[in-house]
TrEMBL record:
Protein name (record): Glycosyltransferase
InterPro entries, sorted: Glyco_trans_1 (IPR001296), Methyltransf_25 (IPR041698), SAM-dependent_MTases_sf (IPR029063)
Domain (Glycosyl transferase family): residue spans on this chain: 173-328
Native species: Halomonas qaidamensis
Highest taxon listed in the record's lineage: Bacteria
Length: 654
């Protein structure tokens, strides 16, 4: 028996909807292949996850052993990216997406964007993604580009299989046409559109049976009201959810499937109908355009009552058309894949590896978002001062015949991430340069090497680049003891006083320059359209929680957070260094869509940190987060974040 997998779904795993039926069939097919799979249903509300849902997922993931293989259905994964992130480094996580959460019908723009961002952030933490249609693959990639939240996990398409079924009999000349609709009663499925269309079809030639759970009570009432108002009670019946035997009997008794959905991630009932030789009348919403083969049915635009009416009238009254479509459905039936083939493809997808680890990708996404605003905020004056010091240092060395004029200056970039520091500095220094990139994350280090190797100096000369995959806990690595400049960006708020003292002592021992940029000050606030600060009590409360969270041990001792910059300045002065400082805040203005992804990531990050600091206040923090995200995307507020740059030079040089 192979290592067991765990499949996590939202709610009861035995629900009879397309997504849950897909999951059940895949589990059965994988077990037939000898894989061991445990299925866990989570309590709580989804997809707008509540505290109970978050705790259920956290408890389930915490109970798994390190390196366990886990598949999280998108309804649970996309709603709780922060919970997934907490376990991304120790678990092998696969996301299973049926369709993007934010594409559900009936969401307002704010909720739609919130769900899209949440799901994309979740995908940044997983090792692979499995989707159920080519359409969903295209859609997820398009959303990642739209929101500027890319992820590197490989995507595999595993379309649903189908169980072979007896062919349903054709309609006899004298009998009415029996239409079958199989879909949960939710706005996205469009049963209200179907009833309005049927109201325009001559009554004597058809009846329609609708099977599916009433997931949305208000929508179900609306559909029933439409049935009553159009006096279709003897023609259209809402049967509710049913068991497999009842549904199979309904397929055998039908002459066509009608699926009026606005959007489907695949549309499994289409292939189930084709497996029974039934023509399909549906829409082009989402993946349905791809799912229904040409010639096996009729497709109309989603929400088009007139077009759906015309399709229904034609099918009910034109025997030649019905015969042609049954032939097309029969041909499509012969080409359908089974669940065993789907299980084989799913098993192979589970073996695919990501090029970046999930944690690395999450960090890379954040670093990518901030790189542009970092570059516009950094102090050019301090870079110019560093360049002058380097020129004087080289001149003295050449005069003393200690080095050749062509020898490069050496810069050690601590915690280099994806190479943003070298991207900014290298072209602004006219000296020949050797960059030593230092990080504990091999995936980020590889990306930094690739990007830095393509750079040139301010004179157009290529750089020399080395990488060193080491922990930052120890500062006695040779790369740090044999360099002219030690530099880092957005790092020191994560370190302790002892680490800062060690760094200062090391620089002083080797007479190195130190350039530390974009260190947070612990100050941030929202601004109005005139870029004036907003004085909000909840903002200050979240800020206090965030700053407290920043002081947790991040692996380099008790972090100093916003006090780190001042501590470093004092430590360097103690060693006789001349310390130059510059204010380098972020100014993210209201009403600039290009900056919305970064601002939303900031809000999400502050909320996540605050929730970890005060879990008992999770609901209040979530409400604050949602309100601020709405204000951001509506262009009502901007964000100011305090940062400082520091250049420390040996006092007796330059």
């Amino acid at each position: 028996m192979s290592q067991p997998f765990t499949l996590i779904v939202a709610g009861d795993p035995d629900q009879r909807t397309g997504g849950y039926i897909y999951d059940a069939h895949i589990v059965a097919a994988l077990r037939e292949r000898g894989l061991s799979i445990n299925v866990v249903g989570l309590a709580g509300r989804f997809p707008d996850a509540d505290d109970e849902a978050a705790q259920a997922l956290a408890n389930t993931l915490s109970a798994l052993q390190d390196y366990a293989q886990v598949i999280i259905d998108g309804l649970a994964m996309g709603a709780l990216p922060d919970v997934v992130a907490n376990h991304a480094e120790r678990l092998d996580i696969t996301a299973l997406l049926h369709h993007p959460l934010g594409d559900e019908q009936g969401l307002n723009e704010i909720d739609q964007q919130r769900f899209h961002r949440s799901e994309l952030c979740g995908l940044a933490h997983v090792n692979r993604v499995i989707v159920t249609s080519r359409f969903t693959e295209r859609r997820v990639k398009a959303l990642a580009e739209q929101y500027e939240l890319p992820f590197s996990a490989p995507i595999t398409v595993v379309e649903p299989g189908v169980e072979r079924a007896p062919v349903s009999p054709a309609a006899q000349p004298s009998e009415p046409i029996r239409l079958l609709c199989v879909a949960t009663l939710t706005p996205r499925k469009g049963q209200d559109i179907l009833v309005q269309a049927l109201a325009n079809v001559e009554r004597g030639h058809w009846r329609c049976d609708c099977f599916g759970g009433a997931r949305d009570v208000a929508f179900t009432d609306r559909v029933q009201t439409l049935i009553d108002n159009h006096q279709l009670g003897d023609r259209v019946t809402l049967h509710g959810e049913c068991d497999a035997a009842t549904l199979e009997a309904a397929y055998q008794n039908a002459h066509a499937l009608v699926l009026p959905s606005w959007y489907e991630g695949y549309g499994m009932v289409v292939t189930e109908a084709l497996a029974h030789g039934l023509p399909v009348i549906t829409t082009t919403g989402g993946a349905l355009r791809d799912t229904l083969p040409k010639g096996a049915g009729i497709s109309v635009a989603p929400g088009d009552v007139k077009a759906l009416t015309s399709a229904l009238v034609a099918f009910c009254h034109d025997e030649t058309l019905r015969t042609e479509l049954r032939a097309g459905a029969a041909a499509a039936r012969d080409r359908l894949g089974d669940w065993q083939a789907a299980g084989k493809a799913f098993a192979e997808a589970l073996q695919r590896s990501s090029t970046l680890s999930a944690g690395s990708q999450f960090a890379a996404d954040w670093l990518s978002l901030r790189e542009g605003v970092d570059a516009s905020s950094r102090s050019q004056a301090l870079v110019d001062a560093l360049a002058s010091w380097l020129s004087e240092k080289q001149h003295r060395a050449e005069s003393a015949l200690l080095t050749e004029a062509s020898s490069p200056i050496t810069l050690a970039d601590l915690g280099c991430g994806r190479g943003s520091n070298s991207q900014f500095l290298a072209p602004r220094l006219h000296h020949a340069q050797c960059w030593m990139l230092i990080d504990h994350d091999p995936a980020l280090l590889n990306e930094a090497y690739s990007r830095t190797s393509q750079l040139n100096t301010g004179k157009g000369e290529p750089l020399q680049v080395e990488t060193h995959c080491v922990s930052l806990k120890q500062l006695d690595h040779p790369a740090l003891t044999h360099c002219d400049v030690v530099t880092a960006s957005a790092l020191i708020d994560l370190v302790s006083q002892a680490w800062i003292d060690a760094l200062a002592a090391q620089c002083a021992k080797h007479r190195q320059a130190l350039l530390i940029t974009l260190s947070i000050t612990g100050e941030w606030y929202f601004t109005n359209a005139q870029q004036q600060p907003l004085n909000d009590l909840d903002d200050r409360w979240i800020s206090e929680l965030f700053n407290a969270h920043q002081r947790r041990d991040k692996g380099l001792g008790g972090a100093l957070g916003g006090d780190a910059h001042s501590a470093l300045a004092k430590a360097m002065a103690v060693h006789g260094y001349r310390v130059n400082e510059a204010e380098t805040p972020w100014h993210l203005a209201a009403g600039k869509p290009a900056q919305y992804p970064l601002m939303c990531s900031l809000v999400e990050g502050w909320a996540n940190a605050a929730t970890e600091q005060a879990p008992e206040a999770a609901s209040r923090i979530a409400q604050w987060r949602d309100e601020r995200l709405r204000h951001v995307v509506e262009g009502e507020i901007g964000i100011w974040v305090g940062h400082r740059d520091l250049l420390a030079l040996p006092a007796d040089e330059g």
